[in-house]
């Protein structure tokens, strides 16, 4: 098996350059490998000042300038493409709608699916490019029959395959991840950028949601959805507090509940359920968060869909660990059972299945089953 970026035939590559160090080094490596590389920065907001400032590596005017300077140093053509309307509709509005419905979305995963490997890739292919290159830490492995698989990065500490689990076989066939086979620390990536003369070498990484300028997700949602006072209740349905919008909570949340009196057992309480229908938030003990199984919808497979039941490992959040599961696709829904109960699983999150290091596919969590009686 070979990693796709090692293909000998030079490709016409469109390098998505966010303005951060990873995408700049990825573009530089693609060019150094002999590919015909063109850099592109995605303008994702009609008002870039409304997105994060302070050189965080995504979506701002300063980021587009950083990307342009990096392209100049690498010696590749550079363009800015306006995808603000698509981003607003497919990522921002989806994010708001999911929270309004009581679910917990992952906007970075949705951006990869809808923007970088749908809108961007479609446009790239229409213009005659062979592949889109990004700075994600993941590997594409080419099999002897020419088909491709998505695998975890060589360095698990930097692996980003979770947010790429939405890519299908066609998209993988036109993707390059030059950093995925790098057994180096982030400091070494920065040192490489500095050796290459890239000014972004010391630029901070971007961690927060790019379209929430101050990092205040609850404030952003309140501005979009308005305040709506509702009840906080315990597992018995007894009112123990109020809130200003059920959308401001996530399953498993402990802090910020603003409950006026302690639980009878004196232990912390956590969000167990969010009901947008009656604007109610249910809280209870940590043990009530134990999830034994789930159903997930909208499955997307990184290759052929699995046939019949199977045993896999699963990842439930971008920076979470793996857990063993059994899973089966039934009537278009993924039915998953955990070998050991897990906590903090929320509808709207993505579950990504792995077979060893290979990404099998992903789906969106719709319902959960708990070990103790609690609304799922």
Give your account of this protein's structure:
The protein has seven helices and 18 strands. With 376 residues, it is α/β, with parallel strands linked by helices. The chain has a six-stranded antiparallel beta barrel. Strand 15 and strand 16 form a beta hairpin. The longest helix has 20 residues.
What can be said about this structure in brief?
The protein is an alpha/beta fold. It has helices at residues 21-32, 61-74, 84-100, 107-126, 169-172, 186-195, 217-225; strands spanning 2-3, 12-16, 36-43, 78-82, 131-133, 138-142, 148-152, 175-176, 230-233, 239-243, 270-275, 280-284, 291-301, 310-315, 322-330, 333-342, 350-355, 358-370. The strands form four sheets. It has a six-stranded antiparallel barrel with strand order 13-16-15-14-17-18.
Key terms:
376 residues, alpha/beta, five-stranded parallel beta sheet
SSE blueprint and pairings:
Elements: E1 2-3, E2 12-16, H1 21-32, E3 36-43, H2 61-74, E4 78-82, H3 84-100, H4 107-126, E5 131-133, E6 138-142, E7 148-152, H5 169-172, E8 175-176, H6 186-195, H7 217-225, E9 230-233, E10 239-243, E11 270-275, E12 280-284, E13 291-301, E14 310-315, E15 322-330, E16 333-342, E17 350-355, E18 358-370
Helix pairs in contact: 1-2, 1-6, 3-4
Backbone shape: globular
Number of helices: 7
Q: Which regions have little confidence, pLDDT < 50, spanning 5+ residues?
A: 1-6, 50-57
What's the arrangement of strands in the largest beta sheet? 13-16-15-14-17-18
Order of helices and strands: EEHEHEHHEEEHEHHEEEEEEEEEE
Helix content: 10-25%
From the N-terminal CA to the C-terminal CA, the straight-line distance is: 42 Å
Instruction: Estimate the mean pLDDT confidence.
Output: 88
Number of strands: 18
Q: Report the sheet-strand fraction.
A: 25-35%
Helix-strand category: alpha/beta
- The value of Rg in angstroms is 22 Å
Largest sheet: 6 strands, antiparallel, barrel
């Amino acid at each position: 098996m070979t990693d796709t970026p090692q293909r000998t035939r030079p490709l016409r590559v469109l390098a998505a350059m966010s303005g951060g160090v990873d995408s700049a080094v990825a573009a530089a490596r693609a060019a150094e490998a002999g590919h015909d590389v063109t850099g592109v920065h995605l303008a994702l907001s009609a008002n870039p000042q409304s997105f994060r400032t302070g050189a965080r590596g995504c979506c701002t005017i300063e980021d587009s300038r950083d990307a342009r300077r990096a392209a100049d140093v690498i010696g590749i053509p550079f363009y800015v493409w306006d995808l603000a309307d698509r981003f607003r509709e497919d990522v921002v509005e989806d994010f708001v709608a999911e929270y309004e419905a009581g679910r917990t979305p992952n906007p970075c995963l949705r951006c990869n699916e809808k923007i970088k490997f749908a809108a961007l890739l479609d446009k790239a292919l229409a213009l005659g490019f062979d592949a889109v290159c990004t700075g994600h830490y993941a590997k594409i492995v080419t099999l002897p029959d020419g088909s491709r698989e998505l695998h975890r990065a060589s360095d698990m500490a930097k692996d980003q395959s979770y947010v790429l689990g939405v890519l299908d076989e066609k998209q993988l066939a036109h993707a390059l991840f030059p950093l995925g086979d790098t057994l180096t620390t982030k400091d070494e990536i920065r040192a490489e950028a500095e050796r290459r003369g890239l000014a972004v070498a010391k630029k901070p990484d971007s961690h927060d949601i790019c379209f929430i300028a101050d990092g205040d997700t609850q404030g952003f949602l309140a501005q979009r959805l308005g305040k709506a006072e509702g009840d906080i209740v315990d597992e018995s349905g007894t009112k123990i507090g109020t809130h200003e919008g059920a959308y401001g909570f996530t399953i498993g949340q402990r802090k910020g509940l603003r409950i006026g009196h302690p639980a009878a057992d004196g232990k912390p309480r956590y969000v167990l359920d969010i009901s947008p229908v009656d604007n109610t938030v249910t809280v209870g003990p940590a043990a009530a968060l134990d999830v034994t199984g789930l159903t997930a919808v909208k499955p997307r497979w990184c290759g052929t869909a699995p046939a019949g039941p199977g045993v896999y490992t699963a990842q439930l959040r971008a920076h979470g660990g793996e857990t063993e599961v059994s899973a089966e696709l039934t009537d278009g829904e993924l039915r998953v059972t955990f070998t050991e109960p897990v906590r903090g699983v929320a509808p709207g999150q993505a579950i990504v299945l792995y077979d060893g290091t290979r990404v099998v596919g992903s789906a969106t969590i719709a319902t959960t089953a708990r070990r103790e009686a609690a609304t799922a």
